[in-house]
Write a structure and sequence with these properties.
Length: 381
């Protein structure tokens, strides 16, 4: 690190590293293969505060800054990005409440997330992915609340959550301007969990449809202002994208370490392959990109901690660059391991499968680049 971490940050980093090494890594391959979520570990991570790091202590969270959270997430993702995705989904669902909820909502819904309860963030729909303004889940105002109808897809922890933060439109003709956000309890009549997805990577995380059929949501569960949902979603994603960057850095670091170690041990043509310049150039490029990605993640987190102005551009850069880096580093690392890297006996092919989602979820990298370009153009005005 080019700057000194506080003793608290160093301790948190060490605790997370040890947890990843002792609790997450030993089970990562098993749950990836079975495509199941280790619920006891996810609940333990919740109770240890790993899934509510930045939630203030008064609401049961870890009360740490965004930089510390990113350092911790990098360590956990080094252990397994799928398990860590499931654990961090709580933060994604909690941000709308933390940032826009009233005191009553915060006191009711945030503390359980540090006590084994799970939440999920429901924005994406079959017809509204990158274009969140095209959401068609309808929130019809009725006496004392709203009735929700619609389908959400690709929801992390969709099948495991105790409650959901849901984005719905009050008027389909008004697009993004009519979005509103709601907290919806899992046991609400009419709410059901649909198809569980079978995925290429992060297979230990649970991804499902969530279906709303005439689900009554009381008006006290409206988050922020009616029609304020688009801002809630975008502000949430600005804060959570550095976390995705940190996840990507954790995967890349795990792959680089494994490839470097392998290059010292694998002998061909009478020498360890790490003696060959072609391999060294790969290791150098991987190491440079990994460091650059980590710095962009730290920069975005530090800007978020300063709470001054927009962080959309910095946050998008961190997520896009780190996601691309995870894909690049894992691909090159697998190449360094040759045929062995391709085999399921080794973790490398899992790292590569896990890396791909970092370029897709919480906004694809194409969308991140649109956000970055808007910042560039705005800066010239
Ligand atoms: C494993 C997993 C977990 C997820 N978890 C959650 C979750 O917890 N909650 C949630 O709400 N969502 C979640 N998502 C959804 C995720 O955020 C979306 O998949 C993502 O935003 C992309 O939407 P899409 O898949 O509909 O792709 P599309 O929006 O259909 O995009 C398809 C392609 O077109 C490109 N594209 C689209 N528009 C443009 C444009 N204007 N210019 C240039 N290129 C463009 C995209 O970059 C992409 O390459 C998850 C997805 C996955 C796969």
């Amino acid at each position: 690190m080019p700057f000194k971490l506080s003793s608290e940050q160093e301790v948190m980093q060490k605790v997370a590293r040890e947890y990843a090494e002792n609790k997450i890594r030993p089970i990562a391959a098993k749950y990836d293969e079975a495509e199941e979520t280790p619920l006891e570990i996810i609940k333990e991570m919740s109770r240890l505060g790993f899934s509510t790091l930045t939630i203030p202590e008064e609401y049961g969270g870890g009360g740490v800054d965004a930089l510390t959270a990113c350092l911790v997430i990098e360590e956990l993702a080094w252990g397994c990005a799928g398990i860590t995705t499931s654990a961090t989904a709580n933060s994604l669902a909690a941000y709308p409440i933390l940032l826009f909820g009233n005191e009553e909502q915060k006191k009711k819904y945030l503390p359980p997330l540090s006590n084994g309860k799970l939440a999920a963030f429901c924005l994406t729909e079959p017809g509204a992915g990158s274009d969140a303004g095209a959401i068609s889940t309808l929130a019809t105002p009725v006496d004392k609340g709203f009735i929700l109808n619609g389908n959400k897809c690709f929801i992390t922890n969709g099948g495991l959550a105790d409650y959901y933060t849901v984005f719905a439109t009050i008027d389909r003709k008004k697009g993004a301007r009519a979005l509103s956000a709601f907290i919806v309890d899992r046991n609400s009549p009419g709410l059901s969990v649909g198809k569980k997805e079978s995925k290429m990577g992060i297979r230990a995380s649970n991804t499902t449809e969530v279906i709303f059929e005439d689900v009554f949501v009381p008006e006290e569960n409206l988050l922020g202002k009616k029609y304020g949902g688009f801002r809630i979603a975008m502000t949430t994603l600005d804060l959570s994208r550095p976390i995705i960057g940190a996840l990507a850095v954790g995967i890349a670091r795990a792959a680089l370490e494994k490839a470097a170690q392998y290059s010292k041990e694998r002998v061909q043509f009478g020498k360890p392959i790490g003696h060959f310049q072609a391999i060294q150039l790969k290791l150098a490029e991987m190491a440079m990109r990994l460091e650059a990605a980590r710095m962009l993640v730290c920069r975005a987190a530090i800007l978020a901690d300063k709470k001054k102005g927009r962080i959309s551009g910095a946050s998008a850069m961190a997520k896009a660059y780190a996601g691309d880096t995870a894909m690049y580093v894992t691909t090159e690392a697998l190449q360094i391991m040759g045929g062995y890297g391709y085999m399921r006996d080794y973790p490398m092919e899992k790292y590569m499968r896990d890396a791909k989602i970092m370029q897709i979820y919480e906004g694809t990298n194409e969308i991140q680049k649109m956000i970055i370009a808007q910042d560039v153009l705005r800066s010239l005005k």
